[in-house]
Amino acid sequence: MIKFTLQVRVKQSEGALVRILGVTRRRRFDLLHLTADTTEDGHFLDILMTVQADRAENTLVRQIEKLEDVSQVEVVEPGDAVSEHRAARFTAC
Amino acid sequence: MKGAEFLVKALEHEGVELIFGYPGGAIMPVYDALLDSKIRHILVRHEQAAALAADGYARATGKVGVCMATSGPGATNLVTGIANAYMDSVPMVAITGQVSTALMGTDAFQEVDIFGITMPVVKHSFLAKTATELPRIVHEAFRIARSGRPGPVLIDLPKDIANTVAAYEFHDDDTNEQIAEASAESITRAIALMRESSNPVVYAGGGIGMANALDEFRAFIATTRIPVVATLKGLGALATTHELALGMMGMHGTKTANHAVQTCDLLVCVGARFDDRATGRLNAFAPNAKVIHLDVDRAEVSKLRRADVPVIGNLRYALKALACKLPNIEPWRRECTTAKEMHTWDYDAPGTEVYAPSFLKSLSDRAGDDAIVACDVGQHQMWVAQHFHFNRPSQHLSSGGLGTMGFGLPAAIGAQLAFPSACVINVSGDGSIMMNLQELATLRRYDLPVKIVLFDNRALGMVRQWQELFHDKRYSEVDLSDNPDFCRVAESMGIPAFRVDDRAEVSSAIDRLLAESGPVLAHVLIHQEANVWPIVGPGRSNSEMLHQHEVAREVTR
């Protein structure tokens, strides 16, 4: 089981967050933490999410990066950013 | 101008000639606008058939297929067809009516969250919020549907937006984006691996046809002389009669193809995705092979099998760049082609009943080099893949990823409308045909000369076969001996039909089928216990193929 944190920037569009969470669930990654904020200009949503899975990071990264409205996906080291964010804990999404 | 007119005008601008659909409350403004358009609308009798016909049209032409339905049940009925297109990477735009924006989220009549429902099975989706953005949405939808790895795109259009009057703004900014070329480094590494290899195999997938890379692929094979195995969707990338075409790999693949893959030292995967039906038990698949994986979708590379050399990007470019002479593979090539000659199909079956593989072989020999075959799903689908000749993948319309029973007849309708003078054949089974039987009425309405070959074993044959082989002959819900009289059903919908129940009649039946100028159905009775051979059992390696004579021996033992 590996655990890692992803930072995703997605265009603010209908269902943007649900789309990313849907891919995460369908590809069998469990969501542990999530924060999402609209950028100052209102055009994008910045998402920070920690997930765990038996599958390699890239399996999820590559599925998310090919979504039409996603402009950036980056793996952040575990514990690197999430602890500062007091993220809500989700058992399911 | 109204939003609905924006939509239709934008579709015209994208070059849409045909829309497959079914009207209803929320989509009525669009149907009104269609009356003044040159776009031809094909009225199917169930929305699922609209999506599947659009899919068949897209597979046969390479163009974007368009389907349309109203909100609620109309939209949910499209879902199977959208998922079918998604799994097989078929370019499609699906347009759904939606209740008015003020009613959305109130459980209004025929309201369903089709945007949410389809999210897992679309490449992208749009909810139109203003009329003026519709031309941009349509343009984007078509661009996304056909770019890179193609797929379906949904446009959900609320009724009030369709009725909003605004000034039309034309959108034609970005043309098709260029697909990036594979890196020079990956090409160099791939060529090095190919030169080191003494027994390479090319694993050809549906991506070759979808990338319009047939010429480049064939030139690549002509230069390298690497033997080729194909996935279901890759059949025809190299003509199936080509000396280096070893046939289909996987669960119902040829002995030659599976053996070549299992013993090769290098697998060059071109536009395929290591699907479980192709690989068998994954950890035993091509155990000694290094892998070069060519694909436009980076997410497919190393998803299931690690690629030693990923070659990401435009297939046409990569295949051109990788074409090099490989003189030291000659002994291996001879071994493969000799094995192919030794393991040809045996069309002698005992009994007097029609033997489906033999029927299909004869039909293929006589239907001409350009016949298009649309299959349903099950035993007959595998027999088509095994015994029909294909000169290009777009002749073989088969639901690969989703395995959608009921795909064949609507797909044949889509293909026949695209190519009115082509010989389009729907090969179906008595289980599958019942899933979209109502489309016989569509054949009649548009007088489409589709030839239907309906193999009838009075059973859900593939499930029956699995229960026989892998569930101790415990038959559960596979008996269809109370099927309707298919000839009378067809005739009641204005389709001439005839029955074939003896192999002595096969030749004249094929004559009659091919001579008919309009639609026709041949109801072909086959043995109830006919199986598809060979087969790799569930969870087994492709090295462990079961052949008919081996199973018979085990039973008598």
Structural class of chain B: alpha/beta
Number of strands of chain B: 20
Kindly identify the CATH topology of chain A.
Alpha-Beta Plaits
> What would CATH call the homologous superfamily of chain A?
ACT domain
Mind telling me the CATH superfamily name of the largest domain in chain B?
Answer: Thiamin diphosphate (ThDP)-binding fold, Pyr/PP domains
Rg on CA atoms of chain A, Å: 12 Å
Q: What would the average pLDDT of chain B be, to the nearest integer?
A: 96
How many individual domains of chain A? Answer: 1
Distance between the termini of chain A: 19 Å
Cα radius of gyration of chain B in angstroms: 24 Å
Report the sheet-strand fraction of chain A. 35-45%
Q: Please give the oligomerization state of what you see.
A: heterodimer
Write down the CATH topology of the largest domain in chain B: Rossmann fold
How many individual β-strands of chain A?
Answer: 5
Number of helices of chain A: 2
Structure description:
The complex is a heterodimer of chains A (93) and B (557). With 93 residues, chain A is α+β, with helices and mostly antiparallel strands. Chain A has a single domain (2-87), classed as 2-Layer Sandwich (Alpha-Beta Plaits). Helices cover 22% and strands 41% of the residues of chain A. Chain A has two helices and five strands, in the order E-H-E-E-H-E-E. Chain A has helices at 16-26, 57-65; strands at 2-11, 30-38, 44-53, 70-76, 88-89. Chain A has a five-stranded antiparallel β-sheet, with helices on one face. In chain A, a hairpin with a 5-residue loop joins strand 2 and strand 3. Chain A is globular. With 557 residues, chain B is of the alpha/beta class. Chain B folds into three domains: 3-163, Thiamin diphosphate (ThDP)-binding fold, Pyr/PP domains (Rossmann fold, 3-Layer(aba) Sandwich), CATH 3.40.50.970; 184-342, TPP-binding domain (Rossmann fold), CATH 3.40.50.1220; 356-526, Thiamin diphosphate (ThDP)-binding fold, Pyr/PP domains (Rossmann fold). Chain B is 37% helix and 16% strand. Chain B has 22 helices and 20 strands. In chain B, the strands form four sheets. A six-stranded parallel β-sheet of chain B has the order 2-1-3-4-6-5, sandwiched between helices. Chain B has a six-stranded parallel β-sheet with strand order 9-8-7-10-11-12, sandwiched between helices. In chain B, helix 3 packs parallel to helix 4 (73-87), helix 10 (214-224) packs parallel to helix 13 (315-322) and helix 15 packs across helix 21 (506-515). Chain B is globular, with a radius of gyration of 24 Å. The mean pLDDT of chain B is 96. At the A-B interface, helix 1 and helix 2 of A face strand 5 of B.
